[in-house]
Structures are given as structure tokens and as C-alpha cells.
């Protein structure tokens, strides 16, 4: 399950809804920059690192591709524990760790870029992956062995931030928090597979935030396309099955960066309030725009998504107007191929098709005619099939097509 826009498409609900027939749910990318929201009855659950399969009591795996903040993980486990959820969780011994030093570096780097900050979540995820690429950081296995030498890392931190964080203290705490939870998640997936079971791979963020393929440099710091489920978990590519892409019926984005279909005004505020479009990690108001089929077609192809879950139709139905972007144009012309504008996406103008609005539509049991028109357009433009429709927070407010 992957997001096809800029994150916050509703993957948490989709993972919760579809995980019933799976033995385990595994995260393969990102870190506590992610935020999943699941609503059950009158309760809302929010988490960042723990896979969304927890609500259904699934076995949970956090793969090597994840940037793991042990302190946040244990806070989350404690909070969910108080709400009655027992996590059967394994963290891969090779994942990238996030310490307070990387968090501080995230704030420091954002502060340097006066006026052109990326608007990161400041959870230290980007710096943690960077330090990992410099081969300076310990992995969970290194913390547990107690043999990691922090002197190189400390020296680099001191040069970059002029501070010397207490990494040994953090390492002791993290060792305690992680003990008994660290293992080989790659082998765990393969064992489940060999005995005929199945694992749901849960992506964080969205395709347009992917480090290589998104709206660079306004992207997150790890890949978020479906193929990274393989690399991030250590699972052969042929063992990754069908891809379900999650799409919100309109678009949101938190943080800076190109967003061709963004709009402002009363409807922006209405959709934000009714859709509760505030970042689950930072609380920042999300930017709002129309559905962008140019970006969506690109994302569907990159992920090989044959199936789509279309989310938040009830919120879109609060609008008396419905526009869908079918092409971009700039001074040189018009095209519906995203790559044609790849260096220029911040300057393009969207070309809209006006559709009959969903205003006031009722979803109980069948698909309203106006929604059927929207679905037809999405399917014909992307070649993928809309399999799930979501028209409310709760599990029951879902239609299978
Ligand atoms: P970072 O991932 O904290 O480095 O932030 C980089 C960009 O990705 C910022 O624009 C964030 O708002 C965005 N971002 C990161 N994680 C998420 C997410 O889970 N949902 C939506 N946006 C995200
Ligand atoms: Mg989110």
C-alpha cells in the first residue's frame, strides 16, 4: 500500500481495512516524519513508526529501510499499550537510527536556508539517512553489541552544529528500549512467505515526496515508491505482489514545494476544516488543491499500481465545484506527461476539466452518479482500476468496487 500524492492520502485507513487477510504488516521506508491516523468508533489513533496493522493485532515488522527513533518508538508503544494494544513488533537490526543529534541537525539545516526551507517535520529523518550514507551512525545491532565507537560521529556533529550531544547516554537508553525487539525482518518475511502466508507492505509518505522521483528538492529523504518495499525490507522483488495506490479525491501537501493545482480562498478553508487537513506529525495546516491527474498518472506508472483506493469523497462532496487537472501548460505548450515539466513544475499552470460536483452526494451502499464520472476519468487517464472508495473515517464507510 503506497501513497500516490504528497502523503496523507489515507494509507492508515486502507492498511487497517485491508490487513485482515495478512499475517504481518511491514514498514519499509521513512521514519517518525510519517503520521498515520486511524479512526475506530469514537477513538482516533495516531502513530508515526508503528505499522498501522497494530489495530488488528497483526505481527508488525519495521524494516532496514526505516529511520528509527527508539525513543519515539517506545513512547508510541507505551501510549498504544495504555489503550489496550499489545504490539508483536520486530525492528530490523540494520535500520538507520535517529538520535537527538540528528533532530538538532534537522532544525539547524532548516534554519540555515533562510526563506527557502524545505519545511521538514524536524524529526531528524533526513540527517539520519545522510549520516548513514556517510557510514557514521550505529545500527541497532551495533548498539546491542556495545562495541560501537562514537568518536568519529561525535567529531562530525561538533563540526556541523558546534555542539557535542551525549550520544553514549542516548545509546544506553536506546539499547534498553530496543532489547528483545531487534531481529532479521528480511528473514521473517521470507519465513511467512514460505509457509504460504502473506505480508502487507506499508509505505510512508507519497510518490511525489520520493527522494529520486518526487518534486526534488522538496521531497522526503527516503524512497517512497512501491519497489522500495523490496530493497527496504530485504525481500526479493519477485516476492512483492500487487500494488494498491492510495489517492485522495483532492490533493494536499504539507511543507514547501511545487503544487500546481493548489488553490486558496473559502473552499480551501472549508476542505481543510471539514477534512481535518492538518499534519498528523506537526499539526501544520495542509495546503489544498484539486486532483492532479498528470502527477497521478506518473505516480501510477512509477509504482506499477493496478488498483487504487480513492479517499475522502465525502469531503470532496462538500464542494459545489469540481475541477480535475488533466494537463499542465507553460510558455512552450501543453502536455499531460509529467516528465515534460520536470525541471519546471513550480511554474506550470494546470489545465482543468470541469466535472459535475459531488455536492450533497450520499454514499451509503452505492456509488453516486457524479462519483462514477470522476472514477471513469481517473481510470481512463491512469489505466488503473478504482477498487476501494472511502467516504468517511470509519472502516464501515468504505465501498469495494
Ligand atoms: P522530512 O521528511 O521531515 O525531511 O520532510 C521533507 C518534506 O516531506 C516536508 O515537506 C514534509 O512536510 C514532507 N513529509 C514528510 N513526511 C510526510 C508525511 O508522512 N506526510 C506528508 N508529508 C510528509
Ligand atoms: Mg500522514
How would you characterize this protein structure?
The chain contains 13 helices and 20 strands. It is of the alpha/beta class. The strands form six sheets. A five-stranded mixed sheet has the order 1-11-15-19-20, with helices on one face. Strands 9-7-5-2-10 form a five-stranded parallel sheet. β19 and β20 form a beta hairpin. The relative contact order is 0.15. The mean pLDDT is 95. Magnesium ion binds at residues 7-8, 34-36, 280.
What's the structural blueprint in terms of helices and strands?
Layout (H helix, E strand, L loop, with lengths): L1 E2 L7 H8 L5 E4 L8 E5 L2 E5 L11 E4 L4 E2 L1 H13 L5 E5 L3 E2 L2 H13 L12 H9 L6 H6 L5 H11 L5 H12 L3 E2 L1 H10 L4 E4 L25 H6 L10 E5 L2 E3 L12 H9 L12 E3 L1 E2 H11 L3 E5 L1 H4 L6 E8 L2 E3 L13 E6 L14 H14 L2 E6 L7 E3 L1
Parallel strand pairs: 1-11, 2-5, 2-10, 5-7, 6-8, 7-9, 11-15, 14-16, 15-19
Antiparallel strand pairs: 3-4, 12-13, 16-17, 16-18, 19-20
The structure holds inosinic acid and magnesium ion.
Mean pLDDT: 95
Query: Between the first and last Cα atoms, what is the distance in angstroms?
Result: 17 Å
Bound molecules: inosinic acid, magnesium ion
Structural class: alpha/beta
Low-confidence stretches: none
- Radius of gyration, in angstroms, nearest whole number: 21 Å
Portion in beta strands: 15-25%
Number of strands: 20
Overall form: globular
**Biggest β-sheet description:** 5 strands, mixed
User: Number of helix segments?
Assistant: 13
Into which percent range does the helicity of residues fall? 25-40%
Amino acid at each position: 500500500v503506497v501513497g500516490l500524492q504528497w502523503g496523507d492520502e489515507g494509507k492508515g485507513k486502507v492498511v487497517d481495512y485491508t490487513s485482515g487477510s495478512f499475517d504481518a504488516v511491514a514498514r519499509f521506508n521513512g521514519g517518525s516524519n510519517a503520521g498515520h491516523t486511524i479512526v475506530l468508533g469514537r477513538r482516533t489513533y495516531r502513530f508515526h513508526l508503528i505499522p498501522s496493522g497494530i489495530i488488528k493485532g497483526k505481527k508488525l515488522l519495521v524494516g532496514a529501510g526505516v529511520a528509527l527513533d527508539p525513543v519515539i518508538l517506545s513512547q508510541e508503544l507505551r501510549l498504544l499499550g495504555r489503550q489496550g494494544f499489545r504490539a508483536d513488533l520486530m525492528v530490523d537490526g540494520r535500520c538507520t537510527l535517529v538520535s537527538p543529534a540528528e533532530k538538532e541537525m534537522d532544525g539547524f539545516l532548516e534554519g540555515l536556508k533562510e526563506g527557502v526551507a524545505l519545511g521538514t517535520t524536524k524529526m531528524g529523518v533526513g540527517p539520519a539517512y545522510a549520516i548513514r550514507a556517510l557510514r557514521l551512525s550505529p545500527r541497532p545491532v551495533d548498539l546491542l553489541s556495545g562495541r560501537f565507537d562514537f568518536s568519529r560521529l561525535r567529531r562530525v556533529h561538533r563540526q556541523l552544529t558546534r555542539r557535542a550531544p551525549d550520544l553514549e547516554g542516548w545509546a544506553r537508553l536506546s539499547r534498553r528500549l530496543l532489547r528483545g525487539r531487534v531481529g532479521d525482518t528480511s528473514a521473517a518475511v521470507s519465513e511467512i512467505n514460505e509457509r504460504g502466508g502473506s505480508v502487507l507492505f506499508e509505505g510512508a509518505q507519497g510518490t511525489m515526496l520520493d527522494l529520486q522521483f518526487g518534486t526534488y528538492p522538496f521531497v522526503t529523504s527516503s524512497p517512497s515508491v512501491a519497489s522500495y518495499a523490496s530493497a527496504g525490507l530485504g525481500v526479493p522483488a519477485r516476492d512483492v505482489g500487487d500494488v494498491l495506490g492510495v489517492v485522495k479525491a483532492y490533493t494536499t501537501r504539507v511543507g514547501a514545494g511545487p503544487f500546481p493545482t493548489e488553490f486558496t480562498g473559502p473552499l480551501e478553508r472549508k476542505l481543510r476544516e471539514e477534512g481535518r487537513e492538518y499534519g498528523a506529525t506537526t499539526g501544520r495546516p495542509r495546503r489544498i488543491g484539486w486532483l492532479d491527474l498528470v502527477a497521478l498518472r506518473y505516480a501510477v506508472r512509477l509504482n506499477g499500481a493496478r488498483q487504487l483506493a480513492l479517499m475522502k469523497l465525502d469531503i470532496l462532496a462538500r464542494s459545489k465545484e469540481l475541477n480535475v487537472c488533466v494537463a499542465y501548460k507553460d510558455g512552450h505548450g501543453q502536455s499531460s506527461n509529467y516528465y515534460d515539466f520536470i525541471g519546471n513544475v513550480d511554474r506550470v499552470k494546470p489545465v482543468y476539466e470541469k466535472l459535475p460536483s459531488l455536492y450533497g452526494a450520499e454514499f451509503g451502499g452505492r456509488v453516486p452518479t457524479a462519483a462514477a464520472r470522476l472514477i471513469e476519468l481517473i481510470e481512463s487517464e491512469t489505466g488503473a482500476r478504482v477498487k476501494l472508495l472511502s467516504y468517511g473515517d470509519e472502516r464501515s464507510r468504505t465501498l469495494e468496487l
